[in-house]
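Re: weekly structure request thread

Next one in the queue (297 aa):
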Amino acid sequence: MNHQKPAAPVLGGGGFLRIRLDLSYDGGPFSGWALQPGRRTVQGALEEALELLVRRPLRVTVAGRTDAGVHARGQVVHLDLAESEWHGMARGQELDPAVAMTRRLGGALNRVLGDLTGAVQVRRITPAPPGFDARFSALWRRYSYRIADGPALWDPLERAFTLWHKSPLDVSLLNEGGSKLLGLQNFLSFCKPREGATTIRELQRFEFARAEDGAIVATVQADAFCHNMVRALIGSALYVGEGAVEPGWLYERLLAQKRDAKSVLAAPHPLVFEEVAYPSDSDLLARAELTRARREH
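Done, posted below.
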């Protein structure tokens, strides 16, 4: 039995406690993160499992929504629980509610997932600091994308999360083209716009490197991403890496501010949501308010 003193949760609005969940998942069998009627989604599975625990419907807020087939190692969500629900997780035992909830939610998820048992893993559950918002408090999100450029690198055991690209790619050309897109830009040419949402983002990293096994791993980091942005960036960069277009073509695409026949999405299965970063606890609320203001204009 764990006699560790429970962490002190922070009271949120209306006497509720904000709880942070750190998740990993294999996105292959899911129709993306977000709820969709009649489709199996990661959010749907998680919320169904949470309802088994607290006996009421719950909604979670995610750091970054992922498309169908996209994976996550470092996804973060938050939810709000009544104080009684939080402390009730231990079922009367002298157990930290966070430890108890992690165990119980893992079991509930496996019940919900059935044949997909293990596809969604709860890595950590903690009471969130004041002002924490999984989405709006984030400083940046980081994705990786794995590419095997040539049949000699095609490993059948890694095909589920690697793009098999037929022709060789020049990493130096990829990095030269990608570097021209860094900074605060309007990424309309590389996004599927949502009504009322901005396509202005700060791209902080867009770089490519060879892994030890010879595959290319792309790192894409931004303050936030609009719909399909990472896959559109990778899909366009492949033209540069092949030598089909000059590295400056990516910047020309950016300036064009339009989506057309040249707007190609890379396959989703090699894309992994790796990490999301947050400021210090004292800056969480200010960051959330600043982000909301930017997204609304």
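The longest strand covers residues 71-82. The mean pLDDT is 92.
Next request, please.
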